[in-house]
């Protein structure tokens, strides 16, 4: 769902004296400090460079049950899944199955939702990849929040199909002329998923598995069930937005998630661990998932802004040599970054969606790497 914009805060460190992976005990000790300092139910993290990976987890996957967190327990990765969507799209571009300049009408023009979208014929595949389509975000839509609340009051599981979520924004029109501005939109990435499926006649998860996951031995799992047993309990914060949607307290009840993770689909839609996230972003940056020229294209794309400093490429936030994505899902937070100067990738997840200082985690874990003995 919503991207963790804390990704955008740069990490400023002097040139490293040493650059090597810390031992697992040292990483665990650092995570224990951070978990207590930030008041998190648990914190799981991984650091990866070309020599390998070190991962550790501290705290509780389920506080009430006393279940200790593990590096092998998954959590919803939130909007980090958009990077996987973009990598899948770019693999299709490499195979000439789609073109970035293609109007999406070429693939979904006969769909009823597209025909109800004013000026939809102006939107291209590239516009959706870079959040420059002008498509509003259903996550910010009042009618969506009201619908979610009504379903929760009625006792229904929160499950939406992509077309249902898209329909929440169709009456709003585009926020700006496609290609002229940046506005983050989960809805735009749902449209992108439908485009990829229409272009190939395969489901998105089939494409992801064939083009990205299997060839690179990535263990990320499609979020297609709300009864998975090997995931951490999620804890929803008591913010007004969370309360309004019914996403507070324990997010798994009687073995079922309060919101079906499949609802997120190509807005995120993956169960991940920090170990897997570091593998994905490290391989992506080092030319193993898409060609090096394709990766460079993913970074160079998007609208630049001297005011922001950072920009959004194809499924990636880009801030100089720091590249990655954050993720939020009710009850969970995720963040991953590849640091180009050191060629190291760091990712972490926590089973809370409360606001906390994610920059502090990156600061200290990168320092742990560059100062390792």
Question: What does this 3D model show about the protein?
Answer:
- The chain has 373 residues and is of the alpha+beta class.
- It has helices at residues 24-38, 81-94, 105-108, 112-115, 125-129, 142-153, 162-167, 186-200, 204-213, 240-245, 274-285, 292-300, 358-370, and strands at residues 42-49, 52-62, 67-68, 75-76, 221-222, 235-236, 249-250, 252-253, 256-257, 270-272, 311-312, 317-319, 322-329, 332-339, 344-350.
- It has an eight-stranded antiparallel sheet, with helices on both faces.
- Strand 12 and strand 13 (322-329) form a beta hairpin.
- Helix 1 (24-38) packs antiparallel against helix 13 (358-370).
- The longest helix is centred in the first third of the chain and has 15 residues, at 24-38.
- The protein is globular and about 55 Å long.
- Mean pLDDT is 90; it is low at 4-17.
What labels would you give this structure?
373 residues, alpha+beta, eight-stranded antiparallel beta sheet, three-stranded antiparallel beta sheet, 13 helices, 15 strands, 34% helix, 17% strand
**How many E strands?**
15
Strand arrangement in the largest pleated sheet: 3-2-1-15-14-13-12-11
Shape: globular
Largest sheet: 8 strands, antiparallel
Quick structural overview:
With 373 residues, this protein is of the alpha+beta class.
